[in-house]
Design brief:
Strand order of the largest sheet: 11-10-9-12-14-13-15
Number of strands: 15
Order of helices and strands: EHEEEHHEEHEEEHEEHEHEEHHEH
Radius of gyration: 23 Å
Strand content: 25-35%
Largest sheet: 7 strands, mixed
CATH architecture of the largest domain: Alpha-Beta Complex
Structural class: alpha/beta
Number of helices: 10
Shape: globular
CATH topology of the largest domain: Spore Coat Polysaccharide Biosynthesis Protein SpsA, Chain A
């Protein structure tokens, strides 16, 4: 029987009188895509318009919505809100757009959970951003509203965020120029992979040497600068893992000329959280294509240990670990393009 229907099939609120009160927490997240016109109004970590500070107003509106959830959702119980906090991150996706990643965390000590309160708060905060910015542009997209954490009930929920890294920090000696700046799909390949990963990841970064992208078409993209001496791809991988140690990473090298949506989606679908990484199997021997993989937080310990003993090859590092290998649909998809001759074959 449906819990919100009684024995006569009439709607009802679930009786929680026999439940025991306990600490409950929920975190909801949504993303707001903003067009280029709104970037001009960005001041620090807020968007300031004639109507007022957008982010601050959205937080106030979202907090009010959390407290009014039972008035909006028919069978939600009225419950005490012991804490409500918003985290807002404004990301410069590229020169044409902004993305706001908004999280609403709600706490209570009660007999039922607060996931609806968190979702309601995040949704109304996002709608407030839309309302305040719509006079500048109506090309605003609210997307990916979801519960990312819930504790204290029958079943806890904890979704690990997925970030993306485009490995672009190499010196490209064989190619003779930065491979991330080479054009394949009518744009710099570094930009293409960045845009590709942005469809699946909460945040995406380029890895780079200090000052590498200054004065180039990639200079405005979020970048993680290699820490310490650059010793190949491991430098970019370790910098990413250390900068955000509690997230999963999609790590893609900029010399993969044939990378596409299908390849990324297959990695995500087959990714396992109980291993260090999920990668494509490359070649007849099936060694891991380490620079096209889904990495879990456990990779940080492995790669740190490897670098400390002087092992810098990501393939050899993954061969020492528990790694999930999947077969590519076409070996050409994971082919590296490292020389002008190989580039000529692509085009």
């Amino acid at each position: 029987m449906f819990t919100h229907l009684d024995e006569n099939q009439q709607p009802r609120m679930v009786d929680i009188s026999q439940k025991v009160a306990g600490d409950r927490r929920a975190v909801a997240q949504c993303k707001i895509q903003l067009p280029r016109e709104i970037k001009d109004y960005l001041t620090g970590q807020d968007i300031v318009l004639k109507k007022g500070p957008v982010i601050q107003t959205a937080i106030i509106a979202g907090t009010m919505a959390v407290k009014k959830t039972a008035d909006l959702i028919p069978f939600c119980h009225t419950l005490p809100i012991h804490g409500c906090k918003f985290d807002v991150n404004i990301v410069n996706q590229d020169k044409n757009s902004l993305e706001i990643i908004l999280q609403c965390a709600v706490n209570t000590n009660y007999k039922t959970g607060v996931e609806m309160e968190a979702l309601c708060g995040a949704s109304v905060a996002a709608l407030t951003i839309y309302d305040m910015c719509k006079s500048i542009s109506s090309e605003i997209v609210i997307k990916d509203t979801q519960l990312i954490e819930k504790t204290g009930g029958k079943a806890d929920v904890k979704k690990i965020p997925l970030y993306g890294l485009v490995l672009t920090g190499g010196k490209s000696k064989r190619m003779g120029k930065d491979k991330a700046l080479i054009k394949y799909q009518g744009q710099c390949h570094g930009q293409y992979i960045y845009d590709l990963l942005s469809k699946y990841c909460e945040q995406v970064f380029l890895s780079a040497r200090p000052g590498q992208w200054q004065g180039t078409p990639l200079e405005n993209l979020p970048t993680l600068v290699d820490v310490g001496e650059s010793v190949g791809p491991i430098s970019g991988i370790l910098t990413a893992l250390r900068s955000h140690p509690k997230v999963n990473w999609l790590i893609i090298a900029c010399d993969l000329a044939y990378i596409n949506h299908g390849m990324i989606e297959k990695l995500i679908i087959h990714a396992r959280q109980d291993v260090v990484a999920t990668c494509y199997a490359n070649g007849d021997q099936g060694f891991p294509e380490a620079l096209c993989g889904f990495y879990t937080p456990s990779a940080l310990k492995l790669f740190t240990k490897a670098k400390n003993i002087g092992l810098h090859c990501p393939v050899k590092i993954l061969q020492m670990a528990d790694c999930q290998l999947i077969k590519p649909d076409n070996l050409l998809d994971i082919t590296n393009v490292n020389t002008p001759e190989e580039y000529g074959q692509v085009n």
